[in-house]
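Please predict the structure of the following assembly.
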Amino acid sequence: MKLIEMNQAAARGLKDQNLTALLPLGAVEVHGDHLPIGTDLFLAQALTDKLEEKMGKENALVLPALPYGQVWSLREAPGSVNISNEILSGMIAQIGKSLEKAGIRRMAIVNTHVGNGDAMKMASRMLYDTSDIKVYLFTYPGAEEVIPKVCESPMPHKGYFHACEIETSYMLYLCPEWVDQSKAICQYPDFPEDFDYTPTPWTDFMATAVLGDAVSATKEKGEAIIERVVERMCEILGKEAIR
Amino acid sequence: MKLIEMNQAAARGLKDQNLTALLPLGAVEVHGDHLPIGTDLFLAQALTDKLEEKMGKENALVLPALPYGQVWSLREAPGSVNISNEILSGMIAQIGKSLEKAGIRRMAIVNTHVGNGDAMKMASRMLYDTSDIKVYLFTYPGAEEVIPKVCESPMPHKGYFHACEIETSYMLYLCPEWVDQSKAICQYPDFPEDFDYTPTPWTDFMATAVLGDAVSATKEKGEAIIERVVERMCEILGKEAIR
Amino acid sequence: MKLIEMNQAAARGLKDQNLTALLPLGAVEVHGDHLPIGTDLFLAQALTDKLEEKMGKENALVLPALPYGQVWSLREAPGSVNISNEILSGMIAQIGKSLEKAGIRRMAIVNTHVGNGDAMKMASRMLYDTSDIKVYLFTYPGAEEVIPKVCESPMPHKGYFHACEIETSYMLYLCPEWVDQSKAICQYPDFPEDFDYTPTPWTDFMATAVLGDAVSATKEKGEAIIERVVERMCEILGKEAIR
Amino acid sequence: MKLIEMNQAAARGLKDQNLTALLPLGAVEVHGDHLPIGTDLFLAQALTDKLEEKMGKENALVLPALPYGQVWSLREAPGSVNISNEILSGMIAQIGKSLEKAGIRRMAIVNTHVGNGDAMKMASRMLYDTSDIKVYLFTYPGAEEVIPKVCESPMPHKGYFHACEIETSYMLYLCPEWVDQSKAICQYPDFPEDFDYTPTPWTDFMATAVLGDAVSATKEKGEAIIERVVERMCEILGKEAIR
Amino acid sequence: MKLIEMNQAAARGLKDQNLTALLPLGAVEVHGDHLPIGTDLFLAQALTDKLEEKMGKENALVLPALPYGQVWSLREAPGSVNISNEILSGMIAQIGKSLEKAGIRRMAIVNTHVGNGDAMKMASRMLYDTSDIKVYLFTYPGAEEVIPKVCESPMPHKGYFHACEIETSYMLYLCPEWVDQSKAICQYPDFPEDFDYTPTPWTDFMATAVLGDAVSATKEKGEAIIERVVERMCEILGKEAIR
Amino acid sequence: MKLIEMNQAAARGLKDQNLTALLPLGAVEVHGDHLPIGTDLFLAQALTDKLEEKMGKENALVLPALPYGQVWSLREAPGSVNISNEILSGMIAQIGKSLEKAGIRRMAIVNTHVGNGDAMKMASRMLYDTSDIKVYLFTYPGAEEVIPKVCESPMPHKGYFHACEIETSYMLYLCPEWVDQSKAICQYPDFPEDFDYTPTPWTDFMATAVLGDAVSATKEKGEAIIERVVERMCEILGKEAIR
């Protein structure tokens, strides 16, 4: 069920349905030339739809996607929109508080942008202290099981990747109409020595926002990972949420 | 042009194109049983698309809609999501700051929810003081010229209407697929005597969130008003913005 | 009763008297050359005194006036003092919280400056959520009924007027000693095309802060409007407040 | 010169006159039964008028008094109004920022309530860092020289006194119309042992807010102290301010 | 007992022991050339140890010292570290809140730096309103009784002294290993006329941060004062705390 | 060099010495019964001393340790002290700002508590935007290379460990006097299924705060890891910092 498609009578009944609210959370951020700026937003919406289908529509309440995220690392690149952790977490927490008034007791944030992690955590802890909503934080859970099996290119960095084999494969599977694979590049930038230990905008060391090998992306790789992610999210939500 | 559909190369060129960014701003709020909870969001997106077309796509940069707004008056109704002025204005202002980095100098907020007015003003003043972005605040400008000519039902209140002849007509024109006119009602609630002068949740005096006569809404009325609104927004933006 | 004139014994008895606290709220803002910078403050105090008298002194608790308000539009004019919405609303809300400790359950803000509207609303909503004080927001209620009948000059703008026929008439009736009518001017500035839609300091388009025709002001016009405003405030407060 | 009595033309000339702005700062706080709740406000206004006269009106710009102060210690007493340091200091600092726009370079806070000290310091440091206004903090400077000479009753506490011989004498000299000396009492409460070292509302140990011997107050004592205070404030402002 | 030396089992038992937590609070601030930058920190720790011993270890729970304080007056001197009142008070208050969870009901801040006074007060009032912890604020209580008896040099200022006879004597008694008395100086700077009444960094009028006569300091003077301070702190805490 | 041991003359010379400031950052948190509550603080100080020695004392400026950290996960356990990210990051950033005044251009945070990570990042980004200080964030860098080689017990969780083989080994190497190995336990709690995805206090699933096998800890393991960590920190700081 999509919240924004419901009428007031239906909304009144939400409290009796044991629903898990799903909040797609993306970002507006440059992703090189083969992927659009809205990549994370498109992925968040498509992934949420997959999850809703898997859970069963009678178990899920899909919220409208929050398109804007925290993109500190690429904030200097024209086209990126950067929201502070304070504002982003505040909005997420207030969404949760309103859902509580509707009788919802579970909210999963279906996030596709690593940079949103801190704000999500802040919001979830605010809600932990001030509401009865249980918040799940999902950023592709389970992907780490499948990626080593299906991906061929080396990881560009132990903690980060971007617009690369992985993320492009997601797009080829979930939103192929937004990929121009003819412009895909393979880029392994030289990270500054101290990159992991001091704030470093990515624009300091690469002009095009691609971290890894986008050329080797395929729809099949995307499918393999995403299907496991969707399954994993259902496992985590568990039987209480998905009946 | 839609920002989220652009790639990085295109985004780099934004600074040379004299564009006006358009930010659709809606709300998640109950609108009775004949209109969906996402009414304001659907309207904001559709109205922005109309405006983009009228301006000429080469003059406009459409941003992803911000779905969540300030809905204090109906915050107690299950299904509504209420964001504080502080958080909402902060997010709008930060969007503006990021656009400035891309070389954008004009942003119009295409808003469809009256309750967002204070937050929009706060954001616009923050940006006035801290950026070179000129912000336009649009909440159906020009509608006031046409409404008295085409609408038949009396206004329920001098300052407020909701899910009524006017708003339902907008929906019938812009998003008819989301209207179930068979459930439209005509409701003129008894406002408390001091309603205009003291904070009063609308849920205090009506169970279904309809202020006015939704039954008399028609697509034609919506068209007459909306077309003038689109025209009026273009007039306000002026020749500098629309060449 | 004036709060600041009471002693501690009298204050202890406040809780048993079903009083409405009246907070005069003005601004320090230039009003051209025929009216003083303290115009809004003088008016707020005089209007509150009228209201107190009409209500009956046994029903009202007059607070000391808060002289400083939000004057964004004229903040650049030497002599204006501009307080942010955040600080102004915070002070009003804290006044309300303290009154609650004294057993007061009703506070009316008698405001004479349109720019204070947002801060007043913020304060009233804070108190709605955190206290048992009911807050009334009064900015010349009822004036809109009389103005079209007694005023002769056209309105300079649909939403704003300043130091004009209306406000000067108020002063001629309530505080004639502060008016130098020989310096009154009639000024209809050319508003920028987009004035209503983008933040625009008034100092951008007029050197002297007069919006309208101050020359046509008379004491009689002021009397007609103000007497209705006072009456209207009593009607709104209602029988529970005025016994 | 009183700011609120000036017109806009006069305000424009403020920048050329080397003026010191005087901000009377009081509090709304119970002062027993012989003094009114507005004692600190009345004193702040009267003291400022004395100072203006002594400085020469051509050297001073008197601002409207800020009536509300920080009254933590007596906040539980009905009739007291307590403003937080954050809000109070914010308002004072914003007043200073606006004066800077008018070309004022010196502001003296003429304070009569010890509890306002922290907020005044906070405001003055904010302005030190963000403006060119020099702020003077006056809470009866020089009084400490005269008090031991003219007062007869022992101090109730090394750091605090309230509505006592000293303050009542001030009132008898400056605002005798507000004193009902027939209700004056002499009260030396038993302070809790740890009073100086832990937050302790005064209402914990006395029902009537009098700390000291109000009975022994006289107009002559008040005159002796206040005249020295006025003189001392002029000395501190110095020749640059008073020509 | 030192909190950081305890294990979890011991911490579980804290709630049953009627303990007073002692928080040493210092500052990082230049103290001329004969005393180290950590003077206030060393003193806070040593003084707390003395107090713990006097109270009896079974009555005290010593917390790790907070080394950083508010040093506005010397913030411009290289080597000083200045923490804002807002951050410092927030940390102290949050320490108190956590102690409350461990069952502690009394916390004494053993402070050695006058500049921390406002933040301490803010923290203690926050805890007064939001916890059951009783907070004691100690900045050398009782010292004022002994100083006039044992010190020989005149006070440099009625309210301030720094790295002088008094403070150097404290160090000679408590931490002699950190004193290089061969570099002690006697310095009575010319305070600006308006020093007491307007924000004035000490670096404006003295290059070396010594206010008073460090040469006349002795261990014996330090001992006399400190022993009384320790005794006085015990008196204030009283029999309930020290059994 | 320890900042708190320097005198003012030495501090004045800091700006000419190309120093890296080292800020030890710990936490006050229960660590089972074999390790003390101050474990993280003891480790931060000892590790910083090792680093200072390795860098050469002429290259390092050791700051006093900040003992209090963010311990959300164990905040409910008596003895833990939990500081919010907002306050902790604010204090770190303000320390950096003051060091900038002394001419320092590099600050390394030597952190031993994973929970401090978010606050450290927030502080480093604040300083990135508002100062010329380059901030390094160190939480045992390089440990991940050695742990798999020397540790024998399985990791209790992919992202967390606590008071276990690893941390106890650190203590046995760096601060053996604070370890009571006779009380070491081996504990692999059953994490809730959704532990990684929703805020979960550790006290929900274990009574004694040990995550892993403390019994298998040895001084040699600690030495192997810590020596690499120290070496790695030097590599990251690089030749510009260590000459």
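Chain F has one domain: 3-241. Chains F and B do not touch (no CB pair under 8 Å).
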